Amino acid sequence: xxxxxxxxxxxxxxxxxxxxxxxxxxxxxxxxxxxxxxxxxxxxxxxxxxxxxxxxxxxxxxxxxxxxxxxxxxxxxxxxxxxxxxxxxxxxxxxxxxxxxxxxxxxxxxxxxx
Amino acid sequence: xxxxxxxxxxxxxxxxxxxxxxxxxxxxxxxxxxxxxxxxxxxxxxxxxxxxxxxxxxxxxxxxxxxxxxxxxxxxxxxxxxxxxxxxxxxxxxxxxxxxxxxxxxxxxxxxx
Lengths: 114, 113
Description:
The complex is a heterodimer of chains A (about 110) and B (about 110).
Chain A lengths: L3 E4 L2 E5 L4 E7 L7 E6 L6 E6 L5 E4 L2 E6 L4 E6 L8 E7 L10 E2 L3 E6 L1
Parallel strand pairs in A: 2-11
Antiparallel strand pairs in A: 1-3, 3-8, 4-5, 4-9, 6-7, 7-8, 9-10, 9-11
Chain B lengths: L4 E3 L2 E4 L5 E6 L6 E8 L3 E9 L2 E5 L6 E5 L5 E5 L8 E8 L8 E2 L3 E5 L1
Parallel strand pairs in B: 2-11
Antiparallel strand pairs in B: 1-3, 3-8, 4-5, 4-9, 5-6, 7-8, 9-10, 9-11
């Protein structure tokens, strides 16, 4: 089953708080997990990505936590700011073949209140 | 470096017509993928091209087709448009090879009436 399940659908966080978005997958044949941020009227922008050989990756205020045994990964946004208000998508790349195909989660609409 | 560009940005078509969308990848990027984004289905993979060859195809009807030119620019075509084809069509480019970062363009908003 090549699906990526994302939760929550929407999230409201106070400025300075931590935003946490979760994703889960069933098929173990994924080997690349990026997160994208999308503002209204724009295309998705790559935020941060992780490979399954590491359990955590941090870039600035953004951290991916990866749990291979549970087949789950999550995005943590520390010190959330109103400018972080956007839709966030997790994705996964199937391992087979020479392809860059990405399977996306359903998205999380994040609102950071000032 | 210029980002991925897509033209046109907005398009209104009538049912039964056909449409061609264009994508220019980032300079040096030879892999181009297309995605359809709708509120109901989210982001869905359409197809991927590399060196003018289709490398992968998603679960879309044959009305959706694409091609890539020798300069890596890509076009996608939708024939016999249906109301359900209304969507944001996104193009992403990346360097050759798997698992390279994909960069998306702003998309073409297609409305079918």
